[in-house]
Amino acid sequence: MKFFISHSSKNADYGTAIVTLLRAVGVKAEDIVFTSNAAYGIPIGENIFHWLKSRIQEQSYVIYLLSDEYYSSVACLNEMGASWVIQNKGAMLFVPGFDLDCHEFKSGALDPREIGFFLYDEDRVTEFVESLKADFTILNRQVLLNQAIKIFINDVRGLAISLRKNGDKSADKIIVPPLSTEQKSPSKVTLDAIVNPNLDRYLSDFKDGKLKDSDVMLIWYAIEQGRSQLMTGWQEDKEVESIRAWEDVNGYPSVLSSQYGTALQRLTMRKLVSVSQETSSGNPKEVKLISQLNDLLINKYDEIDSYVLGVLQRIQSGKTKQDELPF
After folding, report:
1. CA dist 145 to 23, 77, 124, 271, 281, Å?
2. In the CATH hierarchy, which fold is given to the domain comprising 189-316?
3. N or C: more exposed end of the chain, with fewer CB within 10 A?
4. Structure confidence by residue, pLDDT tens digits, 8-52
5. Domain spans of the chain, in order of start
6. How far apart are CA 25 and CA 21, in angstroms?
7. Residue 92 vs residues 66, 120, 238, 269: alpha-carbon distances, Å
8. Model confidence over 63-76: pLDDT tens digits?
9. What is the pTM of this model?
10. Segment 181-189 mean pLDDT
11. Does 177 have pLDDT greater than 80?
12. Domain 3-160 matches domain 189-316 at the CATH topology level
């Protein structure tokens, strides 16, 4: 199966961002058809209509990049109709500012009741990437997938804001919030950055080797498994089961699974997690890493990896820093 990105040439920049995302999560270049880029487009000498028809008939996975410009293009509507007749698998992606209540969308070949999503919706983009595993071979490292998704979201938001700044009238409806300083320059975030006092102290202790081994392994588990949310309370046993499976697969000793509760308690007392779900009686059953810590783990995987490597080698040699106090 190949990706066919059905789009208006006027939305080529957004299409390019989608291609970049697909390539970043592991999709092969030869499995992408994107006619606005010669590298992914129509080979020299091919009849454009015959070639596009054959690509659609290959049961491609069609990404419909929907916009006002899309519905104003006869070629795009023909692509949509052809794909609908063949019943290709696909997804509806909306450019920033697209009006979901417009007549063209509600009366078109695509069922408006089917779930689509705006390009800047990080949660839905994450779901979309995860869904691709059913038909495509993509990366199995969650941290790398998270990195690719964040870069994509920043690119899309940057494009939307750029349209508005350039006076494009079609951007008037865009409601994407401006990029924050951290989003504009994620590469400037380092392990030495003072994001808040608690995180600054935590990172200093991390680099100086003052953290318990279970603390280090908890962070490593969160990175490798893409776990920004962690179960606690009556759900703690479920998280420990997941940790044991992770330890078994990677050949790690049971440092974290045996000390998960106290490691999470220390992270809580450092105020680096917040309650994300509670029971009906108000007791926490899930916590999440604060956004500054979560973003740092995703953006600076390589740096953190270098710090963790030595700890892992020591743990695997049987020399560990045992927990002595809950904080």
Report:
1. 11, 32, 14, 27, 36
2. Arc Repressor Mutant, subunit A (1.10.10)
3. C
4. 999 999 999 999 999 989 988 888 888 888 777 655 555 455 555
5. 3-160, 189-316
6. 6
7. 7, 13, 35, 43
8. 899 999 999 988 88
9. 0.56
10. 40
11. no
12. no
**Which DSSP string corresponds to 277-304?**
EE-TTS-EEEEEE-HHHHHHHHHTHHHH
**At which residue do the structure tokens 């809580």 appear?**
268
Tokens of 160: 């939307």
CATH number of 3-160, picked from 2.70.98.90, 3.40.1190.20, 3.40.50.10140, 3.40.50.720:
3.40.50.10140
Check if the beta carbon of residue 163 is closer than 8 Å to that of residue 171: yes
Distance CA 243, CA 227 (A): 11
How far is C-alpha 16 from the geometric centre of its chain's CA atoms? 17
Rounded to whole angstroms, the Cα distance separating 180 from 184 reads 6
Residue 106 and residue 130 in contact, taking contact as beta carbons nearer than 8 Å:
no
How far the first Cα of the chain sits from its last, in Å, is 52
Q: What is the pLDDT of residues 99-126, one digit of tens each?
A: 888 888 888 777 666 678 999 888 899 9
Tokens of 258: 């045996």
Q: What is the 3-state secondary structure (H, E, C) of 56-105?
A: HHCCCEEEEEECHHHHCCHHHHHHHHHHHHHCCCEEEEECCCCCCCCHHH
Cα 252 to the center of its chain, rounded Å? 27
d(CA 131, CA 116): 13
